Amino acid sequence: MNNIRKFRPGEAATSKWSEERDEFERDYARLIQSPTFRRLQGKSQVFGAGSGDYYRTRLTHSLEVAQIAREVAKRLERTNPFLQKREHPGLIIDPTVVECASIAHDFGHPPFGHKGEEVLNHILMRDHGLKYEGNAQNFRILMFLEKRAGSESGLDLTAAVLLGINKYPYLIEEEGRLKGVYGQEWEVIRELRDIWKMPAGCSTLEAQLMDLCDDIAYSTHDIEDGIRAGKIQMNRSFFENQRLIRHVVLEILNDPNQHKFGWEQVDIEKMVMRVLTDYLEQWELIYNECKGEESRTRREMKARWVSSFASRLDILDDTDRGWKKVALVRDGAEDMDLLRTMEILKKLAWVTLIKDFRVLRLQKRSEIIVERLWDSFIDKEKGQWIIPPDWIDSYERRGTDWSWPRFVADYISGMTDAYAEKVYAELFASKSGSIYEMD
Length: 439
Prior knowledge:
Blueprint: H1 2-6, H2 23-32, H3 35-39, H4 58-79, H5 81-85, H6 95-104, H7 113-128, H8 134-145, H9 159-165, H10 183-196, H11 205-228, H12 236-239, H13 242-254, H14 268-289, H15 294-310, E1 313-318, E2 323-330, E3 333-334, H16 336-354, H17 357-377, H18 380-383, H19 389-397, H20 404-413, H21 417-428
Helix pairs in contact: 2-6, 4-6, 4-11, 6-9, 6-11, 7-17, 7-20, 11-15, 11-16, 13-14, 13-16, 14-15, 17-21
Organism: Paenibacillus whitsoniae
Pfam families: HD, HD_assoc
Keywords: Hydrolase
């Protein structure tokens, strides 16, 4: 069982077991020492990277997801005897694997958050019939683009970590598929899934746990940032505003994944109003406990919500699929009310932060930057002279694996927000930087 989980597809011919470190600990080291991990500090979470020292970036978000996930994994190991049986490689929860998956889950996100992802996907689909999606890009980075000593390409991660990151176990090129894995990497992931005998469409318990802990962080930490920025005002006139309530309801109705939450079982508007009212009342209670100190209130509020979600994570039988699922659980069954509550808080963050008109103005600027960078690089004869030589060397070595449009998308998506703005300024502003700066 260990061998099948610790198998490294990229090192199959020369794989050696480490006597000093567990294989998953080696994966952790490879991830946190990678340039991609460091670049997460310069990529937007909600507010643009560099907006202020307080606000989260993709890096701090990933670390927070990893912390939540590891603690929950330890608890589930202690409280679920069936996990000790290790009956199936996909029905095991190793805290280090979950932590690795959490660290790497946002590696594929481009600069400027979801707007950058949206623009790259639009251009690639419109002009080249190719998709761009952050989760799929994760695997392109981990299995192909990243470099490490002793490897031709990628980080050569273990099968358990690769499948722990794979929360959408599908080929993204399939018709109508919005999330998944690009074809070249899917061949490896599909082979691993076949070896593990994974049921079609099912993720490992480790991937499911990472995914839910990502949602927990999103629905609690991003709201904390929003309160700190004044975008979420902790008073009744804000929380009872009909426009806010209507927009949260619309986000729920327009979500392509709404079927997972059983919204047909409840009056959505009434539930949104109830959750928002409860949230504000809890804030007022904690505010009094903290003697009117807002910063302490924010932190305590966030901590209690993280605890309320994370403490309810458990493992249930997924009878529809003949598998197991990680879920928010109450009295031995999935707690759909708490799941919907978490989703409402996520939509609150989205409506108040991402849909804020000032944020949308910045996103429009980001859209223009990505589009102009793309136009500058996509002509191969001209673009190859203004892309760093090491990238061109990689392209020339792997020309059969890299179409030029995919290569350009890889290059742009690897940029931080600040680096994308720097390159844009060098190309289109009157003066910026120095030719002696190192890229």
